[in-house]
Design goal:
The complex is a heterodimer of chains A (109) and B (227).
Chain A: H1 8-28, H2 36-56, H3 64-88, H4 104-107
Helix pairs in contact in A: 1-2
Chain B: H1 15-50, H2 52-61, H3 64-89, H4 93-125, E1 127-128, E2 132-133, H5 137-147, H6 154-187, H7 197-222
Antiparallel strand pairs in B: 1-2
Classes of the chains: A mainly alpha (109), B mainly alpha (227).
């Protein structure tokens, strides 16, 4: 971040946006949208994260190196969760060993 | 305050380069925090996928009003923290101290709500896995109504709930400690002589802890199918 001083008005606006998004995400939780409830909750959380990181944490005015480092961290997190789920959520796709307690003859059809 | 004007350490070209280096260093530390909390979020996702009805039933046992209030309190503390950094940049010692104190008060308010209004009642309801797991009749009936079974793995939800919010609260306690340090040093004018990097990177930490809560709130309180 540089020595750039952000006006109070910007911070206040961001804060009000964050409060509005909090009210929105809480309200949406009481409406049945099916699987979209989770999507909406996470999308709003990501939007709030971006507001905090870009404005309160001054990422917007930071050198490119800092931005690359932050994106690398988020990319790592995406790898962790997506690769773990790629394993866990696809195990039932193929017939195969299901666990140590089952003998191979029971699990292979 | 007549403190001598800050001059960058000799290995840096100028003050701004030193500030950028300090910020980058803090961000690298925050990445290790992403790795730490990321493991918890990943574990939460896996077990939630595995025991969805139980996690939804557990989520509905939490009080959304406390969660939403605490979110607002924490966002307000992020605002005061950002204003504290701004005051340090503008070399306003009094304003800096005021905003640091406000940030501390809001942080302590968050911890107070979390502890006295949520964790203590949780303890009395007997929903603390490992330490005091003896859910009341109401809790058992509530879970049975939503999952058609008697407490199937709701303990797992509460385990994640206490571990994630507990780790978050621990970071808040550390944050309040950092604020105390900032306050003591700010009194002497150490951060209002052009050297505001310590305030800036303490702010990065504080906002990061806020971001963790921004994700914990919907994941724990909201996506339990409350409609």
């Amino acid at each position: 971040m540089s020595a750039h001083v952000v006006p109070v008005k910007t911070y206040a606006t961001i804060f009000l946006c964050l409060l509005a998004l909090t009210a929105l995400t809480t309200g949406v939780a009481f409406i049945d949208l099916g699987p979209l409830n989770t999507v909406a909750a996470l999308a709003i959380a990501v939007a709030k994260m971006l507001l905090v990181a870009l404005f309160f944490m001054h990422l917007r005015d930071s050198p490119r190196l800092t931005k690359v480092v932050v994106v690398a961290g988020l990319f790592w997190l995406a790898l962790l969760i997506s690769l773990t789920l790629a394993d866990n959520l696809t195990r039932h796709w193929t017939a195969g060993p299901t666990g140590w307690e089952n003998t191979p003859t029971q699990t292979r059809q | 305050m007549a403190t001598t004007e800050f001059v960058h350490a000799h290995q840096f070209d100028d003050n701004e380069q030193q500030l950028d280096a300090a910020s980058l260093g803090m961000w690298v530390f925050l990445l290790t925090e992403i790795m730490f909390f990321g493991g918890l979020f990943c574990g939460y996702t896996l077990y939630r996928a595995e025991y969805l009805p139980s996690f939804e039933a557990g989520s509905r046992l939490l009080d959304v009003s406390f969660g939403a209030t605490n979110t607002a309190v924490l966002l307000a503390s992020s605002l005061t923290m950002a204003l504290a950094v701004r005051a340090a940049q503008m070399r306003q010692r009094r304003a800096l101290m005021t905003f640091v104190v406000l940030t501390m008060i809001l942080g302590l308010a968050f911890l107070g709500i979390k502890f006295f209004l949520e964790w203590v009642p949780d303890w009395h309801e007997g929903v603390v896995p490992g330490l005091h797991w003896a859910p009341s009749v109401e809790v058992v009936q509530h879970v049975a109504r939503h999952t058609g079974a008697v407490l199937p793995k709701v303990e797992m939800f509460y385990l994640f709930y206490f571990f994630m919010t507990g780790m978050h609260a621990l970071h808040m306690v550390v944050g309040v400690g950092i604020m105390t340090y900032l306050l003591l040093k700010a009194r002497t004018g150490a951060f209002t002589c052009g050297h505001f990097a310590p305030v800036e990177i303490s702010g990065l930490y504080w906002h990061f802890v806020d971001i963790i809560w921004i994700f914990l709130f919907p994941l724990l309180y909201l996506i339990g199918g409350r409609y």
